[in-house]
Amino acid sequence: MDWTSWEPLETAHSFNNVTLRETLDGGQAFRWQWIEKEHCWEGVFGKTVVRLRLVKESKLELCTPFTLNNSALNKISEYLGAGIDWKAILDELPWRSDPILKESMEAFVGLRILNQPFGETLLAFLCSATKQIPQIKVMCENMAQAFGESITENHKSLPGWKRLSKATENELRQLGLGFRAKNIKKTADIIASRPDLLDTIELLPYSAAKEELMKLPGVGEKIADCALLFGAGKLEAFPVDTWILKILRNRYGLGDWNAKQIAQFGRIHFGQYAGLAQQYLFSWERSQ
DNA sequence: AGGCAGGTGGCCA
DNA sequence: TGGCCACCTGCC
Fold first, then answer.
1. Going from the N-terminus, what domains does chain A have, and what CATH number goes with each?
2. Closest-lying nucleotide for A138 based on CA to C1'
3. Which pLDDT value is given to residue A71?
């Protein structure tokens, strides 16, 4: 397969090797793999296939299997949040008064939140219940292989909800989805019957969007927040998973707080960009 | 071998 | 509301 030559991709602030990996393959997205031979990351989102690498420590470069036109470049830039002023947003986080947050931000300089296609972000996180990242990646790959559309000779997209609604629960179970198959099937049926539903939800303000998402079977607070944070650019979403529970209980002295209380603390303490703070803490906690 | 894993929904007090 | 448990499956 032919790829274009490597081209620079300008972004407002820089990744390093650790934070590029952490951003692409640290639990926000599940379709990136390290290509050792080429020393780059290869990923699929929507109908886009792209390779990324860092040169001279922090310069980001990309190439694609097709002609790299402006449309493709725009999609990749948007996916990576290249136009967002992350420096200004980071400055709004309460790191001045929060040494734990400050330490995690210093440990992961360049970490950012992806802006993935909304529908497939929801799908990936419907797979995430009580699963580790490598297993979620397997489920996504299985769904792409079984029901996705071919993009290149060796790349397939994740299936759309319409296609998923045509699959049976049993077919989905055979992809290793387990009890998640029932939720995915039921959610697919709802979305397929209301083709504008996800587009509408994505445009709503955070709270209303979350409320609507949680009406879908299998979507609780955590999965709704992940879909909105990683797939709709809603940086105030503060997903509380076992890792966040652990770090806030152990390091913020909230030992006897439950998930709901922790979520409320997070929104108040970290503010309008709580989701970004969450990602730093999440990466930091997982590295310990 | 048994328990646990980026949760959710249902049931019970 | 708040706590407990089943739910698929694979891996340590």
1. 7-84 (3.30.310), 118-231 (1.10.340.30)
2. C10
3. 87
Among A70-74, A84-88, A100-104, A188-192, name the one with the lowest average pLDDT: A70-74
Q: What letter represents residue A173's amino acid?
A: R
Nucleotide showing the shortest C1' distance to residue A223 CA:
B7
Q: Is the CB of A220 under 7 A from strand B?
A: yes
Rounded CA-CA distance A125/A139 in Å is: 11
Q: Where are the alpha helices (DSSP H) in A108-220?
A: 118-126, 133-147, 161-166, 169-172, 180-193, 197-203, 206-213
| Count of C-beta atoms within a 10 Å radius of residue A4 | 14
CB within 8 Å of A52: residues ≥ 6 apart: A9, A20, A24, A40, A41, A43, A60, A61, A62
A176 CB-to-strand C distance under 7 Å:
yes
Nucleotide nearest to A128 (CA to C1'): B6
Q: Element (H or E) spanning A230, and its range?
A: helix A221-232
Is A226 (CB) below 7 Å from strand B? yes
Confidence of residue A258 (pLDDT cuts 50, 70, 90): very high
In this complex, the answer to whether residue A260 has its CB under 7 A from any atom of chain C, a nucleic strand, is yes
Chain C bases near protein Cβ (<7 Å): 2-3, 7-11
A178 CB closer than 7 A to any strand B atom: no
Q: Give residue A287's pLDDT band: very low, low, confident or very high (50, 70, 90).
A: very high
Band (pLDDT 50/70/90 cuts) for residue A273 is very high
Q: In this predicted model, what pLDDT tens digit does every residue of A129-182 receive, in sequence order? A: 999 999 999 999 999 999 999 999 999 999 999 999 999 999 999 999 999 999
